[in-house]
Design a protein that fits this description.
about 210 residues; alpha+beta; Nucleotide Exchange Factor Grpe, Chain A, domain 2; three-stranded antiparallel β-sheet; three-stranded mixed β-sheet; 6 strands; elongated; disordered N terminus
């Protein structure tokens, strides 16, 4: 009895084809904003871009802080210099007030010395009046020269017209040969300092 052989159906092209691979779901594609898992798999382009910008900002901040420190140091030095300048000017002004008369004082000292010599000569038992007079005139001349060095000018209006800006009339006198308002006698001389009146001359004028 013949054995029945199992018959194998003939193979087809469909049987020889590679197994079909299903594509991933569209929702699982990288870069999908609606899929958190896919978003985490996307490359961090924003982080890569922000790093250089942060470095630049940090560098700019450091530079600004260094510049601020330098400006503050310069300001503090300037304030210290200004304070020292104010102190020096105040000290110089105080010294000017204290010693403003040192020059004129040095000019007056020889006058004082001459006066003392004159007094000593006049006190002698055999005082020479002519020499005393000569010494007094010399002393007076020295005093006038000292005053002129500091623009202190004598006002002696004898024989001139009365000037109320420079003279002070003590009295008037009638029956003189002078014109009215003529200074006929000077009781006390006046003085000016740099053309500004220090003391008016006390005078008697003709009426």
């Amino acid at each position: 009895m013949a054995q029945d052989k199992a018959t194998t159906p003939p193979s087809t092209d469909a049987d020889n084809a590679a197994p079909e691979v299903n594509p991933p779901p569209v929702d699982d594609l990288p870069g999908d904003p609606d899929n958190p898992q896919a978003a985490s798999q996307a490359p961090a382009d924003d982080d890569i871009t922000e790093e250089p910008e942060l470095d630049l900002l940090r560098q700019a901040l450091v530079t600004a802080e260094e510049r601020a420190d330098k400006n503050q140091d310069a300001m503090l030095r300037t304030q210290a210099e200004m304070e020292n300048l104010r102190k020096r000017q105040r000290r110089e002004l105080e010294n000017a007030h204290k010693f403003a008369l040192d020059k004129i004082a040095m000019e007056l000292l020889p006058v004082c010395d001459t006066l003392e010599l004159g007094v000593a000569a006049a006190s002698a038992e055999e005082a020479d009046v002519a020499k005393i007079l000569e010494g007094s005139e010399l002393t007076l001349k020295m005093l006038g020269q000292a005053l002129e060095k500091f623009n202190i000018v004598e006002v002696n209006p004898l024989g001139g017209k009365f000037d109320p800006e420079l003279h002070q009339a003590i009295s008037t006198q009638e029956g003189t040969d002078h014109d009215a308002n003529t200074v006929i006698n000077v009781l006390q001389k006046g003085y000016t300092l740099n053309e500004r009146l220090l003391r008016p001359a006390m005078v008697i004028i003709a009426k």
